[in-house]
Amino acid sequence: MSEMRSDRHYYVPPPSHYPVTINLGLFILALGFALRINAIVSGVVPILAGISLALYGAFGWVEKILCEDESGNYHPWEDRSFRIGMAYFIFSEVAFFGAFLLALMYVRAFSLPELASMDPHFTLWPDFKGTWPSGGPKSQAFTPLGAWGLPAVNAILILASAVSLIWARKGLSTANRGQMVAGLAIAFSLGVAFLFQQAMEYRHAAELGVTLASGVYGTNFYMLTGVHGVHLLAGIIMLAVLLLRAFHGNFKAESHVGLDLVSWYWNFAVAIPGLLVFVYFYWL
């Protein structure tokens, strides 16, 4: 059995503290947000500490993996393991995001119409209407966000970034490194532009009175766009790493698992969810 494993050259990395560090940072970050939202802590120290710890763990882990890859420790078996792991990760993230999207669809398609079909003399709260958007019994006044402004621009940006990544992958398969680097740079730039546009959208939403106090509309808006924004930020960091590696001559037609994994993540955990948010929250 040991000889069989030796022939397969499967590399087993040494123990690492980076996964625990990342999870600890994310826990502190979530705790900081909860304390801030509930006015228990007024400062942002826990939030910044959580972000710093999570980023330290993420960059340290990526650096370690890249060093192991460049030193020749990885073989086709490790590549296959990375692909399987990323597939499971994407599935879990899509399921996580899909739960919130389905909650929105349930409220719009079933909950509100069902409540509105009850006895016309029965109302859950004054001025209740079984139509979307609905704030709730204690919601502050707000104006719904329109689709054909910043959201439409963001949908175009995220779709164009996905196409750019496909174009970059095509460049690698045809031994055109210039096309690969250009495609990665375009995708990275479009992702950063999307992030800035989303920040502007939050500012615009606040001007329209859309806050976490805006009932089911406000909470769905910030949950969906917030979760998507976090995934987008992670994807931008991944693209930055790919771009730096491409500038240093990494990735070949026979060795490009990193490019494939980030492309999967961007398309299935960033681009498609972003388009679904545009369609089901803003447009319909």
SSE layout and pairing:
Blueprint: H1 2-8, H2 18-37, H3 45-70, H4 76-116, H5 150-173, H6 177-207, H7 215-247, H8 257-283
Helix pairs in contact: 2-3, 4-7, 4-8, 5-6, 5-8, 6-7, 7-8
Question: What would you say this structure looks like, in words?
Answer:
α2 (18-37) packs antiparallel against α3 (45-70) and α7 (215-247) packs antiparallel against α8. The chain has helices at 2-8, 18-37, 45-70, 76-116, 150-173, 177-207, 215-247, 257-283. Mean pLDDT is 84; it is low at 1-7. It has two domains: 1-73, Helix Hairpins, CATH 1.10.287.70; 75-283, Four Helix Bundle (Hemerythrin (Met), subunit A) (Up-down Bundle), CATH 1.20.120. Helices cover 74% and strands 0% of the residues. The N and C termini lie far apart (59 Å). The chain is an all-alpha fold. The protein is built from eight helices and no strands.
Weakly predicted, low-confidence segments: 1-7
CATH class call of the largest domain: Mainly Alpha
Number of strands: 0
Number of domains: 2
Full CATH superfamily name of the largest domain = Cytochrome c oxidase, subunit III, four-helix bundle
Distance between the termini: 59 Å
CATH architecture of the largest domain: Up-down Bundle
- Rg, rounded, reads 22 Å
What is the name of the CATH topology of the largest domain? Four Helix Bundle (Hemerythrin (Met), subunit A)
Residue fraction in strands: under 5%
Major sheet summary line: none
Q: What is the helix fraction of residues, given as a range?
A: over 70%
Fill in the keyword field for this structure.
single chain; 284 residues; mainly alpha; Helix Hairpins; Four Helix Bundle (Hemerythrin (Met), subunit A); 2 domains; disordered N terminus
